Amino acid sequence: MHVPNPQGQSVEVANSAGARQEEACQPTSRGQLWMRFLLGTGWLAMIAAGLMALSGYPPSGWPFLAMYAATVCGALFIAGLALAWLVSWAKNKRARTGQFAVSSLFFLTTFAAMYFAGIRWVVGCIEAHVHQALPWNAVALVGLGYTLVVFVTLPAVVGITEPLLWFGVWLVRWQPARPFWKLLLRRWR
Q: How far apart, in whole angstroms, are the C-alpha atoms of residue 121 and residue 130?
């Protein structure tokens, strides 16, 4: 950024970190959004196939489509919860730096419950296949594997959520849909 000094000369000023300010952030292109969406749905299809195999069913036919729909709905539900949590955190004007809100505690408890329920379900499926209880170190190994799968799946969930969010923005701004949104808002109030 160039700022004139008292002598009339233009001086380059850096930001507080000492680096030059970057250009304004450009929106994601439509091609990138489609690519993220397709890769995300493909990854969730692989997760659904793995869950089907873990359940003891071959990953094909109607059971696979039901598991895939449940996987996508679960991923979008978790993404929606995370988005709601971040929005409520960002809108909280009364919070001080480092303050932990009760809503954050509720959201973290919900995420932890879903995480541990998923681990328990995987352990239950494995125990059903081996017909015996797993020792604690095997359960810890399953938990580690589940954690890795969850962290690898996060980009896929974001890859699906971001295009859907932008599609929603486009749908709200789409001129032929405006009368429908106005009618919906009148009935909601």
A: 14
User: CA-CA distances (angstroms) from residue 11 to 6, 83, 107, 155, 166?
Assistant: 10, 42, 48, 42, 40
DSSP E strands, the chain? 2-4, 10-12
CB-CB contact of 11 with 2 (8 Å)? yes
Beta-strand runs (E) in 32-180: none
Q: What is the pLDDT of residue 15?
A: 53
pLDDT of residue 12: 53
Residues in the chain: 189
Residues of the chain with pLDDT under 50: 3, 11
Contact criterion met (CB below 8 Å) for 68 and 45: yes
What is the pLDDT at residue 80? 82
